[in-house]
Amino acid sequence: MIRHDGYDEEDLMNDVEDKRNTELSFDDISEIGFEEKTWGSVLQLEYEKDGKKEKFQYSIAQDWVKYPAKEPTKYMKVDWAPFVQYIKDRQKFTK
User: Fold this and answer.
1) Which pLDDT tens digit goes with each residue over 6-47?
2) Biggest distance spanned by C-alpha atoms of the chain
3) Structure-model confidence comparison of residues 69 and 14, the more confident one
4) Torsion angle of alpha carbons 19, 82, 40, 52, nearest 10°?
5) From CA 85, how far away is CA 29, in angstroms rounded?
6) How far apart are CA 61 and CA 74, in angstroms?
7) What's the number of CA atoms in the CB half-sphere (13 Å) around residue 15?
8) Residues of 44-78 as b/e, b for ≥16 C-beta within 10 angstroms?
9) 67, pLDDT greater than 80
10) Helices and strands: H and E segment counts in the chain
11) Of 4, 87, 77, 92, whose CA–CA distance to 36 is shortest?
């Protein structure tokens, strides 16, 4: 596995096993799409789990500043289309 900025396989396993994670089936996802912004790409996800509707936007940070507060300064341009299509293809019915 590639180690990047001190984040390695052990860190990944800790993140995967974190109790705060939410597990979704593809059919829990009511809306999925993406949008290209001038600063980067945004994955938009809406789902309903346990009667609670949630809406999130995800981007991948490329660069961070640590002081005065840890915050992303640059985002990556990501081609989310194959990921979005992968999920839609596996839903029992596309929403």
Assistant:
1) 778 888 899 999 999 888 999 999 999 999 998 889 999 999
2) 47
3) 14
4) -40
5) 13
6) 6
7) 6
8) ebbbeeeeeeeeeeebeeeeeeeeeeeeeeebeeb
9) no
10) 2, 5
11) 77
